[in-house]
UniProtKB/TrEMBL annotation:
UniProt protein name: 5-carboxymethyl-2-hydroxymuconate Delta-isomerase
InterPro entries xrefs: 5-COMe_2-OHmuconate_Isoase (IPR004220), Tautomerase/MIF_sf (IPR014347)
SUPFAM superfamilies named in the record: Tautomerase/MIF (SSF55331)
Amino acid sequence: MPHLVIEYTNNLENFPEAHLLDALNAAVIASGQVQNEQDLKSRVVRTEQFVIGADPTALRGFVHAELRLLAGRTPEAKRDLSDRIAAVLREFTPHPEGMLVQLSVDIVDMDRGAYYKGSL
């Protein structure tokens, strides 16, 4: 905990996966909402098959970030995290000419009683 998953469409060429993850981790850790930096697990998933809307000729893409945290943070803390993540996405997401690129962020509460974490 927490888990940060970034999904992006494969038509966003030269997507800076490693740089984006570094910047996102720094932003989330700087929020003060992560007690131990080694607990933050982030990854990027390139989406090969996707559909946006109903117009097959439209040039569209998306980047979606989902931050999963143990429940208990205030709405203000969640909004701050969402804003921090969105700012990094705006900075690092490629914007090919003529393409509509949608950005979204979701902060998800995880059930403390059901979450398991262990180490080997």
